[in-house]
Design brief:
This protein is an alpha/beta fold. The protein has a single domain (about 10-179), classed as Rossmann fold (3-Layer(aba) Sandwich), CATH 3.40.50.1950. It is about 40% helix and about 20% strand. The protein has helices at about 20-30, 50-55, 75-80, 90-100, 105-110, 125-130, 130-140, 165-179; strands at about 10-15, 35-40, 80-90, 115-120, 145, 150-155, 160-165. The strands form 2 sheets. A 5-stranded parallel sheet has the order 2-1-3-4-5, with helices on both faces. The chain has a two-stranded antiparallel ribbon with strand order 6-7. A hairpin with a 5-residue loop joins β6 and β7 (about 160-165). The longest helix is centred in the last third of the chain and has 12 residues, at about 130-140.
Amino acid sequence: MSKLAGKKIILGVTGSIAAYKAADIASHLTKQGAIVTPVLTQEACRFITPAAMSAVARQPALHDLWAQNGPSHIELTEQADLLLIAPATAHILACFAQGLAPDLLTCCYLAMQKTVMLAPAMNTRMYGHPATQANLEILKKRGHIIIEPSTGMLACGTEGKGRLADLENIFAAVEKCLA
């Protein structure tokens, strides 16, 4: 029996080129027995479709705050054991740090009363920018778990820190958190 069996995870997916890796994350967590509800930003939908995320998570992928055919952000977070954002863009980190709620995912963040885990993914210069680092510090002070990005070749062709953490590191962090 997996340590994740029956655990309810909201998987937030944002508009990073690394969004395609969210399908692997959802698939792995689902195979481990977790109930994964993907919540995509509109920007994430430019990189991976809700249909693809629904297929691998075996749950409807949500992406519209105003849709009437799914649970509200309050219902989602009341039932969830964890809010995992992978990938987390500079934009979503800024929204979270400042308490902005323009979409379903940011509303879920503000309503979440349990653990929040963030896996940043962005260009090295964006990751190292003082604003991004300040936002990460704010989020750490709130008790959120930050899964540090990897160093390596980025989609833009530069090399540095900012790649989405290796999936094994994300899985280990989730399992440690929910065990």
